[in-house]
Design goal:
seven-stranded parallel sheet, two-stranded parallel ribbon, 14% strand, binds NADP nicotinamide-adenine-dinucleotide phosphate
Length: 269
């Protein structure tokens, strides 16, 4: 059981994997600070967590597409005097469609959310955690970062950044008590695919994917054990393992085939 006074900051905690991670922390009696964009969903998550687990929950509504937003969240928490013990970088989005048809401004927003916000939060809290020589950071990466992503080229690129970034800062901090854990989910049944306009992709339309609660439990366990990386799910481990021994163009062709639209129209929606 965690110390009653510990607090976890979770971005993207209003739905999907982040929401399930919030449950894991709440079960261990962490107080929570939840960040997301839609105020109603966030308020509902906070209410449910307070009612069910009797913990303190603070919500911060923020659009993490905005470059200043992570700094604003950090300063708001600092001003409140709350000490953060665990940082969870989860908020992320994707966009489906061939790269020549997708909206560049949306893609720049996604790069800011999936990379920029992760980098800012991680730097600010890593500095605090190092000064105290304690603290835990969870990055929600993806097996997408281990594979090329035709029809999700920018999204896969952002997750490749997260996976590489995680390995670099883990090495830099290997002698510290601060731990950095990278969770790599595969397809997970969340609202991600609606937001990415990807519901027509073959693997999504077929209903493939893990439950968000199972993915979150794998991530939480690895985080609490101070592990550097966990790929959630046996089949996802197999897919990543196979990709290491197959020629790159064949891996790309396989991903393309699995995620091709059922109606054959590959342009962005
Ligand atoms: N689902 C998958 O198959 C899968 C696989 C591998 C990795 N992942 C990763 O898992 C993480 C969580 O995704 P999910 O599948 O749980 O999707 P989700 O259910 O759509 O949850 C995404 C969360 O991020 C928040 N968010 C999105 N855009 C935001 C913005 N501009 N500002 C602030 N918050 C924002 C959402 O809040 P609002 O609802 O308020 O916007 C929501 O709480 C992402 O990093 C994703 O890349 C997902």
């Amino acid at each position: 059981m965690a110390d009653q006074t510990k607090t976890a900051l979770i971005t993207g905690a209003s739905s999907g994997i982040g929401r399930e991670l919030a449950n894991c922390f709440a079960q261990d009696k962490y107080n929570l600070i939840l960040v997301a964009l839609e105020p109603d969903l966030l308020a509902q998550a906070a209410l449910e967590l307070k009612d069910k687990f009797g913990i303190q929950v603070t919500t911060i509504v923020k659009d993490l597409f905005k470059r200043d937003a992570p700094f604003e969240v950090y300063n708001e928490i600092k001003a409140s005097g709350t000490r953060i013990d665990v940082l969870v970088n989860d908020a992320g989005q994707g966009q489906y469609g061939t790269f020549d048809t997708t909206d560049i401004n949306r893609e720049l927003d996604i790069i800011q959310l999936n990379i920029g916000a992760y980098v800012v939060f991680t730097k600010l809290y890593l500095q605090e955690f190092k000064a105290r020589n304690e603290g835990k950071i969870l990055l929600v990466g993806s097996i997408a970062g281990e594979l090329p992503g035709p029809l999700q080229a920018v999204y896969h690129g952002t997750k490749a950044f997260v996976n590489s970034f995680a390995e670099s800062i883990q090495e830099e901090n290997k002698d510290s008590n601060v731990t950095i854990t990278n969770l790599l989910p595969g397809i997970t049944k969340t609202d991600f695919f609606n937001k990415a306009h990807m519901t027509q992709a073959k693997n999504v339309a077929e209903g493939q994917g893990m439950a968000a609660a199972d993915v979150a439990k794998d991530g939480y366990k690895a985080l609490m054990n101070g592990e550097s990386r966990v790929i959630s799910g046996i089949m996802n481990n197999v897919q990543v393992g196979m990709s290491k021994v197959m020629p790159d163009p064949l891996v790309a062709a396989n991903v393309h085939q699995q995620s091709a639209p059922v109606d054959g129209d590959e342009s962005a929606r």
